[in-house]
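just leaving the lab so this will be short. below you get a single protein, a line of residues and a line of whole numbers that encode the local backbone shape. id like you to explain what the token line says about the fold, in plain words if possible. thanks a lot i owe you, the record is right below:

…
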Amino acid sequence: MPSVQTDDIETHYEVSGNGPPIVFIHGALSDRSAASQQLAAFSDSYTAIAYDLRGHGDTTNPRHVPYSIDLLAADLHAFITEMGFERPVLCGVSMGGMIAQVYASRYPDQLSGLVLADTFSPAFLGWRDRIERSSLVNLTAGLVRLVGYNRAKGLVLWFGRKLERDQTTSLRPDAFPDMDTADAANALRAVADFHTTDVDLSSITVPTLILYGEHETAIISRHVPTLSALIPDSTVQEVPDAGHASPWDNPEFFNSTIQTFLTSQAPIEAE
């Protein structure tokens, strides 16, 4: 699998197709394989790229040092620069959506479009959001540190299915790779600290598509109106028969909705 040196890490990635670039950013505890169905769907018309975040997949995190969403956005900027992509579209899922928010708010002129899927905005939306969001992420991180990620993974995914009222099937152990416990804890810590990240959503000027699963938890879905209200040129679409992993739960709808968005609202020209 190809890789490129970006600052202090060697970023591993997969690329398919030839055309305008679209970069897929996976969520915490996942890797580039999460976008396999998107790479297949978009490679006919685009250069579709999926890469492993720091501490995920084949991209190591030196000395397992804790990191922030800010640093992951800086990693993305280094990756896009090193690869020579001009004004790509970003598609970020879950934690990948947080990274994409930061990147798009700081480099709006360097993008053609933005897709935010199954993600939340930085700021807490009141006391209930603060308690539910902090409790879920911190309890998960505590369990991972206590028994090790690979032992905790099954229980974490079982709890995720219960939060979605057993309406989805994509949250299963084989959908998430094994990873070092320190790397898993670092990823969860970055998500937990996202509220400390300085993001001006109103500075995201590119056309933006906001996607969320029909059975998504309130921790995510309550942020959709906020993202839509604060990002000037945004469109919202619910993904039917999907939960927090909407690209896996309903890939046909997910992919076709992005295709329509790119064609009608965020057209990009070949490099």
